[in-house]
Design a protein that fits this description.
Elements: E1 3-4, H1 8-13, H2 17-24, H3 27-31, E2 37-40, E3 54-57, H4 59-70, E4 75-76, H5 83-90, H6 101-117, H7 121-127, H8 130-142
Parallel strand pairs: 1-4
Antiparallel strand pairs: 2-3
Length: 146
């Protein structure tokens, strides 16, 4: 299934508690992980060629990325122009329980897609606690933690 702006709400709201399990099962591992990635490169190699910096994601970040696509909760929409989502993600005190699960999936989509253009954005969202807050809110709203 591929999620678009015209079908994502119905599709995501149709997920059962067990559908959310793979993603929400990451919460304890996220809580116990630090750091979430490591920057490599940025220096010259043995041949004197500059190796551009790049991120090596932790295991939990890579698993999160794969599960998000496999479920799927990644939505095909113009995430780069979504100002409201950017404001929610930047507000450290934002209450994610105030928005529905499809909106949280749009935020996850924007973070993952942004990481393709700004390497390290996904690791940063884990480091800041943003991904954990979103997942805990999804768990609470689905009742999957009960």
């Amino acid at each position: 299934m591929h999620l678009y702006e015209n079908n994502y709400i119905e599709a995501i709201n149709g997920f059962s508690k067990s559908d959310w399990k793979p993603l929400l099962d990451l919460i304890p591992e996220i809580e116990q992980t630090s750091p979430f990635g490591e920057m490599k490169g940025g220096e010259k190699n043995a041949e004197g060629i500059m190796v551009m910096p790049y991120w090596i994601e932790s295991r939990v970040v890579s698993r999160f990325h794969k599960i998000a696509y496999d479920m799927p909760i990644i939505i095909d929409f113009d995430w780069g122009s979504w100002v409201e989502g950017r404001e929610m993600a930047r507000d450290e005190n934002f209450d994610f329980n105030s928005v529905d699960i499809p909106t949280k999936c749009k935020i996850i989509t924007a973070i993952i897609r942004n990481d393709r253009f700004c390497e390290g954005a996904l690791v940063s969202a884990f480091e800041s606690g943003l991904i954990l807050k979103i997942l805990k809110s999804i768990r609470q709203q689905t009742g999957a933690g009960d």
